Amino acid sequence: MSVNDFVLVQGMHDTKLALRRWNDHPWRMLRPWATLSLLIACGLLAAVYVIAELSTPDPTDYLIPGYNSRATFHDYLAVLYRNSLVLALHAMACVAGFMAGSALPLSASKRSGISRWVHEKAGPLAIAFVICATTFSLCTQAYVIGGGAAAIAAQLGTGPGVLLLALVPHALPELFALFLPLAAWIVASRGGQWQDLLAATFVTVAISVPILLASAAMEIWVAPHLLHEIAAR
Q1: How many Å apart are CA 126 and CA 207, to the nearest integer?
Q2: SS3 assignment for the chain
Q3: Is the model's pLDDT at 122 over the cut of 60?
Q4: Whether the Cβ atoms of residue 87 and residue 77 lie closer than 8 Å to each other
Q5: What percent of the chain has pLDDT over 70?
Q6: pTM of the predicted model, to two decimals?
Q7: 80-86, long-range: CB within 8 Å, 24+ apart, which pairs?
Q8: Which residues pair with 148 in a beta bridge?
Q9: CB count, 10 Å around CB of 106?
Q10: How far apart are CA 107 and CA 194, in angstroms?
Q11: Rg, Å, the chain Cα set
Q12: What average pLDDT does this structure show over 88-106?
């Protein structure tokens, strides 16, 4: 058996073991992921609020589906497309963590010379890249959403805080779902459980997808009614 085949077989074995272990005690596995994901989501909303308060509102009026333009199924798909890109980025962070923390060290242990050195160094570099990419994603989201929130709040004639309260019913579950793979990555990395990250990718994405489907529907067909309410005050 070649080294790559050995790593693949071991990786699938570790993934199956993790899924069986979690199936026996699902809440023990989900609780730290869910708690951390919720904290990250709340932290991002807080950052959005601060940026929105500090930003100068863009005078350009936004077209908001369901509020000042007709909400269509195409708008719903656009929200899903946007969120799927973020979910894919965080899911790939989980996969990269599995490869960097489990697959590459295992492969390096079966090699020698330059090949072993390359595989030993690739893991920490990959982990550093994931950290940088994730940090960039979070900062970019906070900046872009915060600027947009300032502009929309001004357009509605209200403050960013009131606007965010109206958006929280769909924004909080949406962000929770998007950050669930990232939370699993952080929990596994702190515990050195890199071999579980491939299983974590499958589980977190399976949980996140239906939440994102529901939150996108709320954003397109429910949130506009809340915006009318706060704009009328």
Answers
A1: 26
A2: CCHHHHHHHHHHHHHHHHHHHHHHCHHHHHHHHHHHHHHHHHHHHHHHHHHHHHCCCCCCCCCCECCCECCCHHHHHHHHHHHHHHHHHHHHHHHHHHHHHHHHHHHHHCCCHHHHHHHHHHHHHHHHHHHHHHHHHHHHHHHHHHHHHHHHHHHHCCCHHHHHHHHHHHHHHHHHHHHHHHHHHHHHHHHCCHHHHHHHHHHHHHHHHHHHHHHHHHHHHCHHHHHHHHHCC
A3: no
A4: no
A5: 82
A6: 0.85
A7: 80/212, 80/213, 80/216, 83/174, 83/177, 83/178, 83/212, 83/216, 84/212, 86/137, 86/141, 86/178
A8: none
A9: 18
A10: 14
A11: 21
A12: 73
Domain ranges of the chain: 3-231
* 10 token code pair: 């071991």
- Residue owning tokens 């940088």: 132
Which residue in the block uniquely carries the two structure tokens 């809340």?
226
